[in-house]
Amino acid sequence: MMDNSTNTAPLVEVEALQMHFSMKGGAFSRRKGVIKAVDGVNFKIYPNETFGLVGESGCGKTTVGRAILKAIQPTAGKVIYHSKKGEKIDFVTMSNKELRPYRQEVQMIFQDPYSSLSPRMTVQEILEEPLRLAGHTDKKYLYDQAVDMIQQVGLRSSHLMRYPHAFSGGQRQRIGIARALITRPRFIVADEAVSALDVSVQAQILEILAELKDKLDLSFLFISHDLSVVKYLCDRVGVMYLGRIVEVAPTESLFSNPLHPYTEALMHAIPDINEREIRGDILAGEIPDAANPPSGCAFHNRCKYAKDKCKTDVPALREFTDTIEGQPILRQSACHFVEEIYNK
Amino acid sequence: MRKKLLEYRNIAAQFNTIEGQTNTLNDIDLTIYEGMSLGIVGESGCGKSVTARLPIRLLPEPMFKVTNGDVIYHHNGEPFEVLKAKQNGKEINKIRGKEISMIFQEPMSSLSPIHTVGSQMIELIMQHTDMDKTEAKEHAIHMLERARVPRARDVYDDYTFQLSGGMRQRVMIAMGVSCSPRLLFADEPTTALDVTIQAQILGLIKDIQREQNMALVLITHDLAVVANMVEEIAVFYLGYIVEQGTTDQILKSPKHPYTKALIASIPTLHTNESLKPIKGSIPDPYSKITGCPFWMRCDKVTAKCREEVPPFVTHENEHKVRCFEA
Ligand SMILES: Nc1ncnc2c1ncn2[C@@H]1O[C@H](COP(=O)(O)OP(=O)(O)OP(=O)(O)O)[C@@H](O)[C@H]1O
Ligand SMILES: Nc1ncnc2c1ncn2[C@@H]1O[C@H](COP(=O)(O)OP(=O)(O)OP(=O)(O)O)[C@@H](O)[C@H]1O
Ligand code: SF4
Ligand SMILES: [Mg+2]
Ligand SMILES: [Mg+2]
């Protein structure tokens, strides 16, 4: 993927994306200050690429996804989308009405299926809705599409008349996936799309996603805390820490050879069925408060390599070249001491 | 001698819907003892959440119907027949949330979007304890802190839509243990959490379990999670318990072909093997299956398996298996 990324035009370009929530709090809250949930995030996603976004709970992954698709209005930055017709547009500056024609090209799979599926609609209505919004009216076409999609995610056409509450958690998640895929979008933000699924259904869904990706030339922003799934599915991965991206690399090189101390710690913390010990101590300490981030490198209070400079200077996301099987690849890391720590 | 806390005695239960009738639970025979920890594992739709909701009667009756068996809760040494009580009557309300508490699979399904985290917590605490409002508030914040909710005092005043997925799940956990239940059902409590917090949260649940001598039923599809957490495991398949034993028995010497396949299908990051998903898929719950529920996907299937439901047989050291070939 990476080798062609240098000469292919990207599909989505996220530039200096920022989402600050101000906590004036009104009458109900005593909370003050600004939560910098997303604070200057840059990355590009190329056609037919699956870009993974990983990082600890609360680091801003969902907020990035929602801001890209304008489920919330970012406080600053650009989201450049290269549309099917070849236009280059910035979602951030567009109104909802202006965005409507592009709605079926970009879709979202939500982290909490329960809150995103209307309890008053049957599964059939839920699946047909995005097609209706896109202007389809033919009843038979709508029904056929719904049947096809529900089967693709391993459920049955008889399920179409049920309401969402009559499903198990994993089944509901698959309905959310079917709804996102039904308009045959070009770009999908998948937020913890398979985290609630058991391994066999997960494997099945991952296969479907991989297959559709190639069949429909899809691209994904794949948000997940499950690194083994990310490793399996993603072409490139961005690692987030406290509202910023600290490392970007092709998946294989990220896993075999992380270039940021945070990525390194994250990989060490993965539990393994063969090890009975809970390895919580490796990434010690809490993820700091997004309303009051540490100075310098935000990771410095948990980093085993931290030096004085880390406490004062904010490290920039810098580029490095690496090689995989003789091919040069591009990597990025936001650590002052990449060269020393990783011999780069 | 272990003391019984909750018993499922040969439970069979169905959903009756316009699509037809499903045999959602079949011959579930399970005893939970005081202070024990049990893992329930199995694929999506096999009946894990329904099993957890049954003793607190959080299922849509009469569409959901128990057709056989009893559920007994041992309340201060007195056996209480859960299924004979009124669904939302006084007796059940005394148990639900106080004696038996639940951390739900999808946090937003049980958190109110229009009340702050704090107001939901004090309501619960004041309902089940003698604390006044000030004490309840301090207790709530203390529980949030214990559940590793960052900025607990601020989050107390937040609405749930302002929280990340993982924070919601931790709020659920704080609520679930805030009234010192005797039994906690934790239904996929860490699916929305990354590994570092997952480890901390599991550690916390384990600590609370030991401190309060609380029994724990941990429901999960992630065998790596239960491996570290529980003494015993029950493996569910299509509404049946197909195998039950100590964690070592299940993980190190599984006897049921389904359990073996499930263990083989776990992806690991540390080895480079690809996934070995279980062949075939779970049959339609509305189809009437004769014989062993797993025979269509089983390597060891015989003619007998197709005709008769295998009994749940106790092997050496209380290792129980529902398979003719085990
Ligand atoms: N609407 C909102 N108002 C105020 N704060 C918010 C809002 N939405 C998110 N936040 C805050 O922004 C931060 C990032 O949240 P986000 O949901 O993006 O995290 P995440 O990386 O997806 O975490 P998780 O893995 O737990 O889902 C959190 O501190 C959260 O409380
Ligand atoms: N209200 C309902 N009406 C009809 N069927 C239902 C209802 N609630 C659950 N079911 C069905 O009962 C079966 C068991 O569901 P349950 O929620 O217990 O599964 P689970 O093992 O928890 O799965 P998951 O891992 O996906 O959460 C499923 O096939 C589900 O579709
Ligand atoms: S910049 Fe310093 S604190 Fe930050 S990751 Fe690198 S060494 Fe650690
Ligand atoms: Mg999230
Ligand atoms: Mg469930």
Automatic annotation (TrEMBL), chain B:
<dbReference type="GO" id="GO:0055085">
    <property type="term" value="P:transmembrane transport"/>
</dbReference>
<dbReference type="InterPro" id="IPR027417">
    <property type="entry name" value="P-loop_NTPase"/>
</dbReference>
<dbReference type="GO" id="GO:0005886">
    <property type="term" value="C:plasma membrane"/>
</dbReference>
<dbReference type="InterPro" id="IPR050388">
    <property type="entry name" value="ABC_Ni/Peptide_Import"/>
</dbReference>
<keyword id="KW-1003">Cell membrane</keyword>
<feature type="domain" description="ABC transporter">
    <location>
        <begin position="6"/>
        <end position="263"/>
    </location>
</feature>
<dbReference type="GO" id="GO:0015833">
    <property type="term" value="P:peptide transport"/>
</dbReference>
<dbReference type="GO" id="GO:0016887">
    <property type="term" value="F:ATP hydrolysis activity"/>
</dbReference>
<dbReference type="InterPro" id="IPR003439">
    <property type="entry name" value="ABC_transporter-like_ATP-bd"/>
</dbReference>
<protein>
    <recommendedName>
        <fullName>ABC-type dipeptide transporter</fullName>
        <ecNumber>7.4.2.9</ecNumber>
    </recommendedName>
</protein>
<keyword id="KW-0813">Transport</keyword>
<dbReference type="InterPro" id="IPR013563">
    <property type="entry name" value="Oligopep_ABC_C"/>
</dbReference>
<dbReference type="InterPro" id="IPR017871">
    <property type="entry name" value="ABC_transporter-like_CS"/>
</dbReference>
<keyword id="KW-0067">ATP-binding</keyword>
<comment type="similarity">
    <text>Belongs to the ABC transporter superfamily.</text>
</comment>
<dbReference type="InterPro" id="IPR003593">
    <property type="entry name" value="AAA+_ATPase"/>
</dbReference>
<keyword id="KW-0547">Nucleotide-binding</keyword>
<dbReference type="Pfam" id="PF08352">
    <property type="entry name" value="oligo_HPY"/>
</dbReference>
<dbReference type="Pfam" id="PF00005">
    <property type="entry name" value="ABC_tran"/>
</dbReference>
<dbReference type="GO" id="GO:0005524">
    <property type="term" value="F:ATP binding"/>
</dbReference>
<keyword id="KW-0472">Membrane</keyword>
